[in-house]
Design a protein that fits this description.
By secondary structure, the chain is an alpha/beta fold. It contains six helices and seven strands; from the N terminus they run βαβααβαβββαβα.
Length: 202
């Protein structure tokens, strides 16, 4: 049995293409692992707070010395880290907003990348603690970023590979549905994306 964590970040709800692609991935995972359990965390509906001084102070306060204020500030982070540590597979829907990831996803990342908890440094080299996970990124964009004129504008996949790899999640597969706003590609974008998912060996 696999435990699957499904992270939603799109603000578009039912109209979200990244969610649609994530659902297609989840369907294939369900077929591959019939007894799997999916836990969905919708960051669009239940966003994490952006980091403030209170959060950072709590992160660097030893557990035995934390005040009630520290404990309240660190709750989101602890819960998010618990979710990813318990999951075998993580599916993350990622719409591209202004060449980057949604701020909801960035806030979540800022709560899970914690020194001494999800990574440490050994002789100046970072070592991630969150290992043994399979990550699927469901990236959706109006333009085409995987190739062509806008490839150098792709700050989404490179960033996510680096930041997740930093904490130990290096087994990452990227699915893209792209060109949804381009007249020449919008009518075939979803079919192309779905074919890629259906032909992938999960």
């Amino acid at each position: 049995m696999k435990k699957i964590l499904n992270i939603i970040t799109s603000a578009k709800g039912e109209a979200s293409v990244s969610n649609k692609q994530s659902n297609a991935i989840l369907e294939r995972l369900a077929a591959a692992y019939p007894e799997s359990k999916v836990h969905t965390h919708d960051l669009a509906k239940h966003p994490f707070p952006h980091l403030e001084e209170s959060h950072i102070a709590a992160f660097y306060t030893p557990e035995e010395a934390r005040t009630d204020e520290n404990k309240a500030a660190i709750k989101h982070s602890d819960n998010a880290i618990k979710e990813i540590l318990e999951a075998d597979i993580i599916v993350i829907g990622v719409p591209v907003y202004n060449f980057g990831i949604p701020s909801t996803l960035k806030a979540w990342i800022d709560h899970i990348v914690r020194a001494g908890v999800t990574f440490k440094y050994e002789n100046g080299v970072p070592v991630g603690y969150v290992t043994g996970k399979k990550v699927y990124l469901s990236i959706a964009s109006g333009a085409v970023f995987s190739e062509g004129a806008y490839k150098s504008y792709d700050f989404v996949e490179p960033y996510l590979r680096v930041v997740f790899g930093f904490i130990g999640m290096t087994d990452i597969t990227v699915f893209r549905v792209e060109g949804t706003s381009i007249p020449q590609t919008k009518d075939t974008a979803w079919t192309k994306a779905l074919d890629t998912i259906n032909n992938f060996a999960f």
